[in-house]
Amino acid sequence: HDVVRVQVGTPCDLCGDEDLVAWWPGNRSAEDVVGGHHGNPAFVTYVPGKVASGFGMDGRSYVRVPAAPGLNVGPGSWTFETWVEFDRATSNDALASWGAVTIQRQGDRVYLFSPGNISSVIAGSAVANTWLHLALAYDAVAGKVRVYRDGQYKGDFAWGGAAASMDDRDFYLGGIPGEPYKLQGTLDEPSLYRRALNPDEIAAIYSAGAVGKCVPGTNRPPVVNAGPDTGLTDATQTLALQGSVSDDGLPEGVLWKQWYQRSGAGAVTFADAENPATTATFSAPGLYELELWASD
């Protein structure tokens, strides 16, 4: 059997982040829907998640993602973010691991364990069987890991050379086989980025809630900008319009653009009405309104 995720009538604004390396939605499989870094689940069940279904983990469970060049985001900046629901309010639960590096919750703290470095931030107590969003964003330039809970910045700590140990290691969700402190609860939408997301981006992921990130291949409407208000000293001059249209390229080869005259003291002639950055001339002095449309 197989499962398909369908988004209907739920606007999604989190689309097309080119630095999203891997995203495991947990929708009845351990597939990575952006990078092809598919996981191998062990002792995992699929249960209701924050967004569709998620990875149900019982303290034995884990998902192993084989090492691959595309996962080698260290020693540069990176972000790991996920929704998680703990079975217990106070416990030690691994969220993600690679080599000797582990992101783990212990009580009210979020830890990052790495060779010669144990660092943590107080992120607040968890409530059993209640969804929360956790994110760790490593800024390689600043040498710091910033920790967020439910879209809010909770603190940071220094983390330096150990970042290189992220390279060429299998990636695990929920803990490493043979190690203690595996997750007891549900992990949903775990995602890995090759840069440090900023506070607004992390807050937006949290605010999206059960809508989640856009499913790859979702067609988004074009973004239209008609340019700044402007003027000419007389009607004999030609105006260079500064419109622009950006699009996600879906569906391929289908993008319609058109300038229109909404109002004005005379007639407007566009050199190329289908070009957002065309020129226009005006038959008489006065105030005009021009409108740029786009559709796919």
Please characterize this protein's 3D structure.
This protein is mostly beta strands and 296 residues long. The protein has one helix spanning 199-208, and strands spanning 20-23, 40-42, 45-48, 53-58, 62-65, 78-86, 92-98, 101-106, 109-114, 117-122, 131-139, 144-149, 152-158, 171-173, 184-193, 223-225, 239-240, 244-246, 256-263, 268-270, 279-282, 289-295. The strands form five sheets. Strands 1, 3, 4, 6, 11, 12, 13 and 15 form an eight-stranded antiparallel beta sheet that branches. The protein has a seven-stranded antiparallel beta sheet with strand order 2-5-14-7-8-9-10, with no helix packed on it. It has a three-stranded antiparallel beta sheet with strand order 17-21-20, with no helix packed on it. A hairpin with a 2-residue loop joins strand 12 and strand 13. The mean pLDDT is 88.
Topology overview:
Layout: E1 20-23, E2 40-42, E3 45-48, E4 53-58, E5 62-65, E6 78-86, E7 92-98, E8 101-106, E9 109-114, E10 117-122, E11 131-139, E12 144-149, E13 152-158, E14 171-173, E15 184-193, H1 199-208, E16 223-225, E17 239-240, E18 244-246, E19 256-263, E20 268-270, E21 279-282, E22 289-295
Antiparallel strand pairs: 1-15, 2-5, 3-4, 4-15, 5-14, 6-11, 6-15, 7-8, 7-14, 8-9, 9-10, 11-12, 12-13, 16-18, 17-21, 19-22, 20-21
The portion of residues forming beta strands comes to 35-45%
Question: What Rg is obtained from the alpha carbons, in whole angstroms?
Answer: 25 Å
Q: State the distance separating the first and last CA atoms.
A: 34 Å
Pick out the low-confidence regions.
none
The major β-sheet equals: 8 strands, antiparallel
Percent in helix = under 10%
Order of helices and strands: EEEEEEEEEEEEEEEHEEEEEEE
Could you say which overall geometry the principal axes of the C-alpha atoms support?
Answer: elongated
Number of helices: 1
- Mean of all residue-level pLDDT scores: 88
E-strand count:
22
Structural class: mainly beta
